[in-house]
Amino acid sequence: MKVSRVEAFAVRAAQEGQYWGAQAWSAASDASQARRRFIYSDRVETVLVRLETSDGVVGWGESKAPVGAVVTAKLVEELLTPIVLGTRVDEITLTWDRMYTGMRVRGHDAGFWLEALSGVDIALWDAWARTLNQPLHTLIGGRYRESVPVYASGIPAGLGVQAAHERALQYRERGFRATKVAIGNDPRQDVAVVEAVRDVFDEVYADAAGTYDLPQALAVGRELTQLRVGFFEMPIAPEYVDGYATLAAKLDIPLALDSLPNRYRAMEFLKRGALHVLQPDVCRAGGITELMRIAQLADSFGAQATPHVSIGSAVHFAASLQCAAAIPNFTVMEHWAGVNPLGEPIAADHLDPVQGVRVVPHAPGLGITVDETAVRHLSH
């Protein structure tokens, strides 16, 4: 029952159209906007981790790598694998500490290291649950719910009022009951687009990806409050904790943040009363082990927790669903509504939401069957 093999696959696939995040916050050519633009790939990229035990059980994990997937895969292969090989599959927290501590002296408590670690951690949980022939959520607290409500992400405000309204109608026709709008470029247009989407959905959320300054976030936040938006995600740069505390004190709308790489960073916000909805990403924030710690920490402060699910493979979606099922202080989860070339193509039993709900599977482990041949074909 020890880890006998670990492999990392940097996979990529062409996507249909441009990812909504790239449409909203892609790299800038204008230097004045350089602080408000981020790097995106023109394909769907990620790193899948295959872990095998001495008993022949295989577990799968995913390290979030929308860009630079080869870098993340190398971290898994060259630095994390030597730590994990030979460890017991039923000592996941101990193995997590060994992996995390490996780069603590260098200050690597976020970014590529935590993302690489996340994939190994998820694979360990999948393998352990499959060894016990149990669905993964039973090992991390049990099933609080049989199904998980999800909202469709996302609708870029840059589409304009009419196009955004039409996109919202399309999502509603697909059965979604809620959606999220990507804002952060033009406060006036952003609010107008959210209002147009709000005409279609009773539940609407807004994500600025940290692109506003504090005065802009205050002004937009007040408008979103009037529109009864569910939460205001990453209104300003995530490094500005005191700014979040200021916003939380002056706005009535709940503040949310997905850029939480570990429980220590989450604690900084919670102690200041600066967040109401914590959105750790299971493939970025230290895997299942650390995500559940963050969720428990949030619960201790009366805050909600929900896995962040943007772009990624079926493994990402499955791991997030397992966590959502086991989080007591959960309300709703994100779901990338685009066509995912790393969804069913690598796991035929990866199911899309029906009427805005994802059913929690009873199958062992992550609840999906990864097609190893497909993964190897897509890797580079």
TrEMBL record:
Alphabetized GO MF terms: hydro-lyase activity; magnesium ion binding
Record CDD domains: MR_like
Cofactor section: Mg(2+)
Superkingdom per UniProt: Bacteria
Listed Pfam families: MR_MLE_C (PF13378), MR_MLE_N (PF02746)
One Gene Ontology biological process: amino acid catabolic process
Keyword Metal-binding: yes
Keyword annotations: Magnesium, Metal-binding
SUPFAM superfamilies with a match to the protein in the record: Enolase C-terminal domain-like (SSF51604), Enolase N-terminal domain-like (SSF54826)
PROSITE patterns in UniProt: MR_MLE_1 (PS00908)
Domain Mandelate racemase/muconate lactonizing enzyme C-terminal: 161-254
Stored PANTHER family: ENOLASE SUPERFAMILY, MANDELATE RACEMASE, MITOCHONDRIAL ENOLASE SUPERFAMILY MEMBER 1
Listed name of the protein: D-galactarolactone cycloisomerase
Organism: Rhizocola hellebori
Gene that encodes it: gci
